[in-house]
Specification:
The chain is of the alpha+beta class and 77 residues long. Helices cover 21% and strands 21% of the residues. The protein has a single domain, classed as N-terminal domain of TfIIb. The longest helix has 10 residues.
């Protein structure tokens, strides 16, 4: 059973987001448009967010390549 509302306990606090960095490059992370991942442009990695908790393990990250990387780098402000 899914609901259309987001559980407020599973929303990332913007202040916490400002403190998080990529575990590989130590550069800033950016929240994806759908708020499901934290993106490290420098490392070309996307870290998932599960129930409001960013999984900043390199084992959990997925690689961003080609067209997706271009879209993310030009779409993020």
């Amino acid at each position: 059973m899914s609901t259309s509302t987001t559980d407020p306990r599973h929303v990332i606090n913007p202040l916490m987001l400002e403190m998080l960095v990529c575990p590989l490059t130590k550069t800033r992370l950016t929240l994806s448009a759908d708020k499901s991942e934290l993106i490290s442009i420098a490392a070309r990695l996307a870290f998932p967010i599960v129930r409001g908790v960013p999984l900043l393990s390199l084992d959990e990250a997925r690689t961003i390549e080609g067209e997706e990387l271009t879209r993310l780098t030009h779409g993020i402000q």
